[in-house]
Amino acid sequence: MNTIPKKISAQLEQNPIDWQSVLEDTIRHFDCSTGTLHFLKPDTSILELKAQKGIPDFLIPKVSAIPIGKGMAGIAAERMKPVEMCNLQTDESGVARPAAKETKVEGSLAAPLIHEEKLYGTIGIAKPVPYDFTEEEIASLMQIGDAICQKIN
Known about the structure:
Blueprint: H1 6-12, H2 19-29, E1 34-40, E2 46-53, H3 60-63, E3 65-67, H4 71-79, E4 83-85, E5 108-115, E6 118-126, H5 135-152
Antiparallel strand pairs: 1-2, 1-6, 2-3, 4-5, 5-6
């Protein structure tokens, strides 16, 4: 089984937790350029942006509040399973929202933040090139997500 990278574990032990640093360390760990961290707003079906890197300023309003079921993050939350795309730019499945293509990323992975079968939010990472994330990478991001969940409360 994978272990969470030491730097991310150390970030999660801080009080208060710097969520931007947690996200940036996660992005670096996977050799990505872009990422988002959304937490589920209590008693709603809205994912609220907690941290981001590499999202163009004009897209921030569109990613600040994402309904469950919309876009990669929303679908990962709805399915409670990771959603991956080798190339977001050429995707025609409808999973990626049209504005997502404005990020200029290609290989993308959105994972739900789940602990004990409860949804806490989502984490997304992306590369500027086409890329298929491995099963090990997906499992590792899910494990990081579980560790984040345990610190959200």
